[in-house]
Amino acid sequence: MTTIGGYTGAVRKAVVPAAGLGTRFLPATKATPKEMLPVVDKPAIQYVVEEAVAAGLDDVLFITGRSKRPLEDHFDRNFELEEALSRKGDEERLALVTESTDLALIHYVRQGDPLGLGHAVLMAQSHVGNEPFAVLLGDDLIDPRDPVLPRMLAIREEFGGSVICLMEVPRESISLYGCPAVTPTDEADVVIVTDLVEKPDVADAPSTLAVIGRYLLDPAAFAVLARTEPGRGGEIQLTDALRVLATMPSEEGGGVRGVVFSGRRYDTGDRLSYLQASIMLASEREDLGPDLRDWLKEFVAGLQ
Ligand code: G1P
């Protein structure tokens, strides 16, 4: 199959890079993949797969690395546990166990050398082929009540090219993110990306829009990634490939638009934001919410 850009078919596949070391969460991540840390009572990565599936992308490819077996096991059957719960007649918990197995058609490829996010995405080429595809980063948890993928899919369907997700952030935190230069369009939440820089210094940032870990990529991205040299941190950066795509003609699969997201998003790769995500999601749950909220009020009142 030749990989030429500008493919106009629907997005069906999601790629989820999960090869990172999770050093920000040591020692918890010494023997447990960071993607498996629970947010309330579900591994962070399951929220991401559920988000993809809810948007109609039920073919999910994980790009994994060493020590990611627990992640593979989580999306596989656990006969022993299923058998035990079923013997006890505990249908409710049995459903929780089989939920992740039945969620999607899951595939895996190993990244081998950890050469960066761009390299991880390039590993998806033989599975994805000449189709547009989504990339979802596990550290970004989009609140299930504020889905962004449907809007991004609609923009891809209308204009082709690639679509990234952007969020306004305070200028002082822009150096944690990819950052685009943009021009507005007639739609308030859509911009045209004219340039991109990975984790700029605050003084050099072309905007205060941060790239959030949701991407729809034209298959032309693969050829671009294959010739992308290591960039920031000596890694092959997806941001650098998007920068090239932004200036390529649309007939070749170029063009990058941004959807400016204003919903709830948590960075589960950051400890403080991870704790906030757990508390916010738990406090709004029917089973845990009322008790947690009561306790929180008391707790906060007691804080100096
Ligand atoms: C990656 C991307 C960056 C993006 C961020 C979103 O960085 O390289 O452009 O803004 O994800 O979460 P990371 O956070 O993996 O260092």
Automatic annotation (TrEMBL):
One Pfam match: NTP_transferase
Stretches assigned to the Nucleotidyl transferase domain: 13-279
InterPro entries according to UniProt: GalU_uridylyltTrfase_bac/arc, NTP_transferase_dom, Nucleotide-diphossugar_trans
CDD domains the record matches: UGPase_prokaryotic
GO biological process: UDP-alpha-D-glucose metabolic process
Catalyzed chemical reaction(s): alpha-D-glucose 1-phosphate + UTP + H(+) = UDP-alpha-D-glucose + diphosphate
Class in the EC hierarchy, top level: transferase
Keyword annotations: Nucleotidyltransferase, Transferase
Entry EC number(s): 2.7.7.9
Membrane-spanning residues: none
Signal peptide: none
One annotated GO molecular function: UTP:glucose-1-phosphate uridylyltransferase activity
PANTHER family: UTP--GLUCOSE-1-PHOSPHATE URIDYLYLTRANSFERASE
Family as reported in the entry's similarity comment: Belongs to the UDPGP type 2 family.
UniProt name for this protein: UTP--glucose-1-phosphate uridylyltransferase
The organism of origin for this protein: freshwater metagenome
